[in-house]
Request: fold
Amino acid sequence: MSSSLPATLGKYQIIREIARSNDIVYEGYDPVMNRRVAIKELAMPSGASSSQQEERLSRFKREARAAGTLAHPNIMTVYEFGEDEGRYFIAMEFLDGHTLRNEIDTKGFLPPDEAVDIALQALAGLEYAHSKGVIHRDIKPDNIQLLSDDRVKLTDFGIARLTFEPNITMDGQVFGTPSYMSPEQVVGREIDARSDLFSMGVVLYEMIAGKKPFLGDSVVATTYAVMNHEPDQPAQCNYALWQVLIKAMDKSPALRFSSAAEMMEALKNAQHSVGDDMVIDPRTMAGAPMYPGGMAQVPGGSVMPPPILYPFNPYTGPGPQGHPMPMPGPGVAANMGQAPIPIYYPPPPRQPLLKPETRHTLGRVFMATLVLGTLIAVILVAVTQLSRAIQSMRTHSHDQEVAARLDKTDANMPLDERISTEEKLRQTLNDPGTIAAENGRLASLYEQRGKRELGDQDKASAEQDFIKATEMDPQNGAYYSDLGALYAEVAQAERDPSQGLSMWQLSTKSWKQAADLVQNPEQRDKYGEGVAISGYEAALGLQEIGDAVEARQQLYVARDYAPANSPVSKRIQGLLDQLDGDSTDSQP
Reply:
């Protein structure tokens, strides 16, 4: 990957380089939409192996998909993922302002109200991302942008986890920033949305305290602190807000907030409780403002004189007129004409609810019950396992018998009759492996019948049989290629332009599914050429109806799949250049 500043990336004009870390970020200009954009270019490490390069590209594409599916006021918007002569990039919303990291480093710490407001906006973005199956996994001040209009945006979904897609990270691999990672993320376990809430709690703590809750001189020391240490309450954090923080940063995910919405509600309640922490002692008036002459104002606005304090012991019995009045001694305040207010001594400890003998007896009963219950549970588990084993043996025997009958199916039997026979026998199978094998065989039969019907010009029936083959064996790209070829043939014969466009789009989708499933490079090039041809034809149809934006997107897909230096790839690039030229000419 070249390190020089490109003049353009795709349709975007590069203005300047903004930042460089794992990837490179530029400020750019979109001439089509007439707007500033931020462009992140994939920076491939020098000397990386082909497998490492492929993994980096897969993660870069996943970042684009993760953020590209999210449209929320508190999440940075992704416009496009593209490739320009081997340089891969993501075009994003250009954000002004600065990061939360800059804000903390400049101010040291933030007022609690300001910190909570920032956290609430970030949590709103997280709640939306989690609802779409996206876990950020790298929440930290560097990835929270504070805009000039006081809005907050989450950025950098580079290591996000998409719950609806296979995980790129293998078990045991750890990605993230140690100071903000949850304990389960530190040890490489499976994580969910509650891991992001832990990180959000760490960020909120740092905003209020001006320092991270888990500190260490090295990565090992930091991760050890995350796993084992409990942070101290910051001096400027009231009790209600501290309860939110310790729940968010609990070591166990089960004891944290279950969702970002729940944490937001707790933070709002904590905001309303500011000022409720002061407790006024009615005996000493601690916390109440004092007036001259020793008069104190109490809640409600009333004013009372300072109390007379006597060293009072409630166990000495009542004094004169029913008041306990011990003998005056050192420290006794005397004020004649005012009722004495005694110093309170706590009552003696109560007797235990249960005697030691009773607790011992109950403990033995509990242990006996526990042992008996465990024994019964073990017996029930054993009986259940035995029943399942017997049922499994019966199922296996039945499936073997059915499989033998399927193997003996006459290959010379008419194709329709053979499909009907095997469909009925498949309904009686129970073993997943046997069912999968039979599904593969039936998919092949449906494909044979579809090709026969295609030869008889019965395209509608052929389409249904090819679709049935993909349902039976969805991992076989050949069946999707059958559909792609069929739709292309129908599109070429279609006289209605709108119907023809729909067929070309269906053909592109089917060829793309076929190309994504195959591993053989030659087969992939063959299917990729089908994607390129169909996508090119679809783009022509979109251009004719004036939808240049969708035509350009169709061409990007076709270009990604077209074999290198093939004739169709040159036609695709030519049409892209034409569309870009038309859009430039149309600008005032």
User: Anything to note?
Assistant: Residues 173 and 336 are 78 Å apart (CA to CA). The longest strand covers residues 12-20.
